[in-house]
Design brief:
The complex is a heterodimer of chains A (257) and B (285).
Chain A lengths: L1 H28 L9 H10 L1 H35 L1 H15 L7 H8 L3 H25 L3 H9 L4 H38 L5 H10 L3 H29 L1 H4 L8
Chain B lengths: L22 E12 L6 E12 L3 E5 L6 H8 L7 E6 L2 E2 L7 E5 L10 H6 L8 H4 L5 H14 L15 H13 L5 E5 L7 H18 L2 E5 L3 H7 L2 E5 L6 E6 L14 H21 L1
Parallel strand pairs in B: 3-8, 3-9, 6-7, 7-8
Antiparallel strand pairs in B: 1-2, 1-4, 4-5, 9-10
Classes of the chains: A mainly alpha (257), B alpha/beta (285).
């Protein structure tokens, strides 16, 4: 517990140190804020422009979450299918890997072509970028069910679905929640990416507009907001993970003999 | 303790008391070959075996001889390449008998408490399955607690598997194999990973459970003392591809004690079985 607190203290300290050094660097070199604004300027801009920024934050968050939820649904479905069936696993894997290795920035124009600019391409980009880690993790979790346990249940007359429901899916939960943390960050990146390329709303768009107006502090304010939101989303899903799948990370120090 | 008397029961007409009564399991002309063509591996030579209802049969033999294959055949997990496996009067796939199974690896689910783990089969096997959500839930819980009491895990129902030692996990595993009142219990080296003393303790536990519930038991083991202590009947198998080369009944009175396993009669039985296995092993090389 104590060690944990110390570690948190140092993590926080490192962030503060980073900003202090940045600030000092800008002051010492007399850096123009058109190139690299000081963190204090960035925070001030963030604070002053907050009423204007807020709808954009909501826009980015909502496209991220919609894309994420759809991505999770698709990922769980695909993961369950290829995790349960060896044939589906071997057949579908090359296609999935091919799809996941396409840089998503390359598909945004296609989404825009199909659906016009705005929220839809953002949601789709978020979806397409975040479902892959979920597929992989669900499939792995399902494929690692102990064969003995499967035998015990089959001898009882359990159907494939019984085994999936009672053993496969719960066993997958730690993998699933670990992948959620990653997937939500990916979804966020996807949504912002799409907003940057083709949208008139969202933090990505704010940053594009600001940079074409040489409002560099605002660009950085956008970056900071993205970082804060990204960390917040990651933290939320880490907490959920700990709550639900604590059994998987428990230490053995409480063994009763 | 008073000295255990080793009484031989009176010989019945067939000469083998455990062959009396209705049949629980019957393998007729069963063989198993894994793979096809060039790579075919014969795992079990033509085997015929009948297990009487309520009997306790131990299968011993050199490793890789197909003991586990017989167990898996009876559990309906492997299909015979030739022959028929009949369990409870019907072909094995029909699941005419309720089956409980336990392996060396306890495979309890880490996210469930011991009680929930023990209750798992009731969520799967009818008629319990459809009753699980209804009011019988408390009844089922009482049942699980009664079983856990019997194996000495009274205070551990709400613990998680990672809080228990290996021996305790194996006790819980036995409870899980018995909760749905199976008529046939299949045990594959259930105590193989435990230390000598825990193992002996669990032999007694298993004997008590068997005497109380009287399922038909098929036990696969490497341990001849274990086979002699627990079983009514011991079948010795040859090296791969396995076939049954000896079938003897174990006449010692029940309940048996660990002390008995050091008596001359018991040791003699042990040595006889051992010689079969040693010769079966050397046959192969």
């Amino acid at each position: 517990m104590r060690q944990n607190l110390t570690q948190k203290f140092w993590s926080g300290g490192l962030i503060v140190l980073f900003f202090v050094l940045w600030e000092l660097f800008c002051l010492a070199t007399g850096m123009s804020d058109l190139v690299l604004p000081r963190p204090s300027q960035v925070f001030a801009t963030m604070f002053n422009r907050f009423p204007v920024l807020w709808p954009h934050i909501l826009q980015t968050l909502s496209t991220t979450m919609i894309g994420f939820v759809l991505g999770v649904a698709l990922g769980v479905l695909l993961g369950a299918i290829i995790g349960v069936s060896k044939v589906a696993y071997d057949t579908a894997y090359p296609l999935l890997i091919g799809f996941s290795s396409i840089p998503k920035v390359a598909v945004v124009p296609i989404f825009v072509l199909w659906f016009g600019s705005g929220s839809v391409p953002a949601v789709l980009t978020a979806l397409s970028i975040c479902f892959f880690p979920i597929v992989v993790n669900i499939a792995t979790g399902l494929a690692t069910t102990e064969p003995e346990l499967e035998d015990v249940l089959k001898a009882l007359g359990a159907s494939k679905f019984d085994i999936l429901w009672n053993v496969g899916l719960p066993r997958t939960m730690p993998f699933f929640f670990a992948s959620l943390k990653v997937a939500v960050s990916y979804a966020f990146v996807g949504a912002v990416l799409s907003e940057t390329v083709a949208s008139n709303r969202g933090i990505g768009n704010v940053m594009m507009t600001a940079s074409s107006n040489f409002n560099v502090p605002l660009v950085f304010a956008g970056l900071f907001i993205l970082a804060i939101l990204g960390v917040a989303l990651y933290l939320i899903f880490s907490l959920i993970e700990q709550r639900i799948t604590g059994w998987a990370t428990r230490k053995n120090d409480l063994v009763v003999t | 303790m008073n000295r255990m008397q080793l009484k031989w029961p009176e010989q019945t007409a067939s000469g083998n008391p455990s062959l009396e009564g209705p049949t629980a399991v019957e393998l007729s002309g069963v063989s198993v070959t894994f793979g096809r063509g060039e790579q075919a591996v014969p795992a079990l030579a033509q085997t015929t075996l009948r297990i009487a209802d309520g009997d306790f049969l131990a299968l011993v033999g050199p490793s890789g001889c197909g003991k586990s294959t017989i167990l898996r055949l009876v559990g309906g997990l492997v299909r015979p390449s030739t022959g028929v496996v009949v369990v409870g009067g019907r072909e094995v796939a029909a699941k005419a008998l309720r089956i409980g199974m336990a392996f060396q690896n306890p495979t309890l689910l880490p996210w469930l408490t011991i009680e929930q783990n023990v209750l798992l089969p009731l969520k799967i096997v009818e008629p319990y399955r459809s009753e699980f959500r209804k009011k019988r839930r408390t009844e089922f819980r009482d049942k699980a607690h009664a079983l856990l009491d019997q194996v000495g895990l009274s205070g551990f129902a709400s613990r998680f598997p990672w809080q228990l030692s290996g021996g305790m996990l194996q006790r819980a595993n036995l409870c899980r194999a018995l909760i749905h009142e199976p008529r046939l219990l299949l045990l594959d080296e259930p105590f193989g990973a435990l230390d000598q003393f825990t193992r002996e303790e669990l032999w007694s536990t298993l004997q008590t459970l068997w005497l109380a519930h009287r399922p038909t038991v098929l036990l696969v083991t490497h341990d001849l003392r274990e086979a002699g202590f627990l079983a009514n009947r011991i079948c010795v198998m040859s090296a791969r591809p396995g076939r049954i080369i000896d079938d003897s009944s174990v006449p010692f009175q029940r309940p048996r004690t660990i002390q008995m396993t050091f008596e001359p009669d018991f040791v003699a039985l042990n040595q006889r079985l051992r010689e079969f296995i040693v010769s079966a092993r050397s046959e192969n090389t």
